[in-house]
Specification:
With 418 residues, the protein is an alpha/beta fold. It has helices spanning 9-15, 21-36, 62-73, 97-107, 111-121, 153-161, 174-181, 211-214, 223-226, 232-249, 261-266, 282-290, 315-331, 347-354, 358-365, 374-378, 381-384, 393-398, 406-414, and strands at residues 42-44, 50-52, 82-84, 183-185, 197-203, 271-280, 305-313, 341-345, 368-370, 388-390, 402-403.
């Protein structure tokens, strides 16, 4: 094949079939991908683990399953163990008889066989289904400077920005191919130049902005609200903030003055020449929030379901939500939430939480704790018609769910349903 980027003799050998026909096809795909984006060469993937975005066994994705079979048969399995995005189904999550039939028989009827393929390709274990693979409890935490082959947008922006690792906003399957070959094309966010800030966002709000609304903003002024230490609170804030930047604005990297690793290290030299300035104040945040469309057929409908935890909640967030819901219910003279509510977190976080007294406390409020991806749950015509509320900007962007701030959600679920 003709290609523009420079390949080492070893890479060329793989491309020419030195490691078999299947590996050659995988390499060819990566070279075409790199050439399309002007990559100059391939660089080794240096993270200990990979992460896959495609976690759901949708019946209509037969070509993916055929491809996975070919990879397994050709010995082209991942060179690194990987975690994967959350599962779409959990029997504990409220559902209707009809929806269960649609889920099991028509939509996710390939889930079991796909899970088996993932295990053969290099999935760490059955608890590794989460988009927040970088949580301590899960353990897929890249080091600063590591080159990754990931695709999940909320995890990519977190790894790039909070951890200082290097990863492009790849698509599903391409990220698996990078993990199989152990190399990725060198372009974009993997390069020094591609990591420079092309926008300066000045945050001039009068209070700490809601992470999920600020989502399209990056940078200066934020240190006033989240400090200069990357502690648990700051990381949880940046997790939610980054997921919103990625889903609302295709942002794969941000730096925060005095806080994120590359900004601390390189200061203003990280700002690209000619970077533009965007000022965020209270009025701008209100404007952004008020412009979110309400996709419900009946805009005054009583919510039928509430999701909190997209991206998955951290352990500390889960404890805080449990505390807040319990307190608010007590204050409102109620014992259970008025809207069926689901909190979602990584299986390892759920397991840790369930071993504490907080598990009984949360259960008493009527909130269900699950490991699913709310987006996968909602992506079907039946759930799509339901009035669902969420504090996730990503879920709002990709589904018909309606966005409320965390404080508003707490208020809605702990008061009498209207
Ligand atoms: Fe995670 Fe699913 Fe939301 S993958 S970020 S819970 S859409």
């Amino acid at each position: 094949m003709n290609y523009k980027m420079h390949l080492t003799p070893e890479e060329e050998d793989i491309l020419n079939g030195g490691k078999g026909e299947t590996m050659a096809k995988v390499m060819k795909t990566l070279v075409m991908y790199g050439d399309a984006f002007g990559a100059t060469k391939m660089v080794p993937v240096t993270s200990k683990m990979g992460h896959l975005v495609t976690s759901f066994g949708l019946g209509v994705m037969q070509p993916v399953y055929d491809l996975m079979d070919q990879l397994i048969a050709g010995g082209a399995v991942s060179s690194q163990k990987f975690s994967v995005d959350p599962k779409p189904l959990d029997p504990n999550v409220p559902s209707s008889f009809l929806k269960n039939i649609v889920f099991k028989k028509f939509m996710y009827n390939m889930q079991d066989s796909y899970d088996a393929q993932l295990a053969k390709l290099g999935l760490v274990d059955s608890k590794s289904y989460t988009c927040t693979c970088y949580m301590d409890e899960v353990g897929n935490i890249p080091n600063k400077g590591d080159v990754l082959s990931w695709a999940e947008s909320s995890a990519v922006v977190y790894a790039n920005s909070v951890l200082g690792a290097r990863c492009n906003r790849n698509s599903g399957i391409i990220e698996l191919f990078g993990s199989i070959i152990g190399r990725v094309p060198y372009f974009g966010l993997v390069t020094d130049e591609g990591r420079k800030a092309t926008w300066i966002v000045e945050v001039k709000t009068t209070k700490k902005p809601e992470a999920q609304i600020l989502g399209s903003a990056i940078g200066k002024g934020l240190d006033k609200w989240i400090g200069t230490e990357l502690d648990g609170d700051a990381k949880a804030y940046l997790k939610d903030f980054g997921a919103a930047t990625a889903s609302n604005g295709a942002v794969g990297l941000y730096h925060i003055d005095g806080l994120t690793p590359e900004a601390v290290e390189q200061g203003e030299s990280l700002i690209a020449e000619g970077a533009k300035v965007y000022v965020i104040d209270d009025a701008e945040l209100d404007r952004v929030k008020n412009n979110y469309p309400v996709m419900w057929k009946d805009k005054n409908a009583t919510p039928k379901l509430c999701f909190v935890g997209c991206p998955h909640l951290s352990y500390d967030q889960l404890v805080e939500w449990t505390e807040n819901v319990s307190e608010a219910l007590k204050k409102n003279g109620r014992s259970k939430v008025s809207i069926p509510t689901v909190f979602t977190a990584a299986p390892a976080v759920v397991e840790k939480f369930n071993a504490t007294p907080n598990a009984a406390k949360l259960k008493a409020t009527g909130v269900v704790l699950s490991y699913i991806c709310p987006l996968m749950y909602m992506n079907n015509p039946l759930a799509g018609k339901m009035p669902v509320i969420t504090n996730s900007n990503k879920l709002r962007t990709y589904t018909t769910s309606r966005y409320y701030t965390s404080a508003e959600i707490l208020d809605i679920i702990t008061k009498e349903a209207k």
